[in-house]
Amino acid sequence: MASTIAVDEHLHVRVVSRRLVKASDSSIKPHVLAVSNLDLIPQTTQGSLFVIYPKPPTTDFNTIVAAFEAGLPSLLNHFFPFAGRIVTDRSSGLPEVHCNNQGAELVVGEATAAALASLDYGNLSKCLRKIQLPYGEDMALSVQVVSFACGGFTVAWSTNHVLVDASAMSLLVTAWSELMRSGTLAAGSLPNHDRSILRPRVPPSYSAAVLDEAFTPLDPRRQVNVLTAEQSFVERLYFIEASDIARLREMASGRDDGNGTRATRVQAVSAYLWKALATVVGMADARCRMGWWVNGRQRLTSSPELRAAMRSYVGNVVTVVVKEASADELQRMALPDVAAMVREAIAAPAYEEHFQELVDWVEEHKTQRYVDTASLGLGSPTVIVSAGGASPTDTDFGFGRAVLLAPTSALTARLCSGYVQTVANPSGDGSWFANAVVWPRLAAALEADEPRVFKPVTAEYLGLVLPARKSDMSVSDSKLSAPKLDSITCEL
Questions:
Q1: Which of 419, 406, 320 is nearest to 370 (CA)?
Q2: CA distance 191 to 311
Q3: Where in the chain is the domain with CATH 3.30.559.10?
Q4: Distance (Å, rounded) from C-alpha 151 to C-alpha 429?
Q5: What global pTM score does this model have?
Q6: Which of 152, 43, 209 is nearest to 464 (CA)?
Q7: What is the DSSP string of 26-59?
Q8: Phi and psi angles of residue 173, each rounded to the nearest 5 degrees, phi first
Q9: For the structural domain made of 7-197, what CATH number should be given?
Q10: Helix, strand or coil for residue 17?
Q11: Superkingdom of this entry's organism (predicted)?
Q12: Which of 25, 127, 169, 374 is the most exposed place for a label (fewest CB within 10 A)?
């Protein structure tokens, strides 16, 4: 079993180089991209898609860096706003993107005193804060490549939530991998940056009672203090095996009701989480809540044009759905009944009208920053689930797939709700990674349950070994030769 060293002592990243890379297509005219109203809900919050690669069997790090540098101009030809800068408009005070081809940032670093196998993957956020390097608030894209003593490396695609949600970030990385391997993008992979499809009505029209309750101004007076927020939670990185997801799905589907309705993967795992939360809450609170970030791309389908625009839309198209229930009843309910409650909650909104009302509501509230009320952590305990990506993000840039993918966010608000973000394993084997920020009691319950569904990620699971065991690379090599990515989905 690989040993773990003290991350704080040994993990230091030295910046080797930092450069700006511009789009190569000189025919693209400079312009200003006005963000959509849905982009203004998260506003300017930095976030990244972080991946880990073992040492490639035939490629050295300098070659990898050269490949990223050579491929970035072509990517920016298709994702031109990411070569720009995020600027605050002086008259409105709102962010916009100045697309003048100032260049995306490419940062190369090295952590020569640490091996990837030595990192504490059960508490990856502690490592990420040291691996991921700071970048300017105005930077639209910072690509950070860091080498380690074992020959493996990490890549962080760092940007701002005002430009993308998790699905759009996955689209960018997948498109870049396609460009690197084939030199071109298929028609279905071409990104859509047109924010005009999410325009407010004139005059705006929405249910004030519903949306005013769903969002709260991001004001310190409406949040718990910083010590309470920081001390309330632990951060964990779990993996959920495909067999456990399938088992939960069978359990959550129950008996065949005759119409072929079965719990989806997200519904089944959410039902399991909700029952676990209710058990932890016990008699301390009468009720508890679950929430789900719902991707609108699969739900805005009123016309062929809208479906086509949403398929490769780069921006934010998400909304949160929350359901509260009795903690006692949840403990007593069978898993299929809880899964049915999850399914009904997610399906309840009329999404075409809901997203339009959300766009209209923001139009009249965009001078102030808001957060979804459930995330504040006031009221009954809440866990919010985000299922990122309908299929695995393609991380093969020509030197093998990543063994770990984890979205991260730099949101600094004092939020006190639990959060679990699942992503498909880039191997395409049907397993998930789950980045969790939860109460210690809930983490302990998940990790003590048998058979365990949420298992802490380890270097052994990822196939990583310390340099002293370089000869024993069978697991890592098998990861690199994994079968072709399948179309396993994470449908809500």
A1: 320
A2: 9
A3: 7-197, 208-457+475-480
A4: 25
A5: 0.90
A6: 152
A7: TTSPPEEEEPPTGGGTT-S-EEEEEEEEPPPSS-
A8: -65, -40
A9: 3.30.559.10
A10: strand
A11: Eukaryota
A12: 25
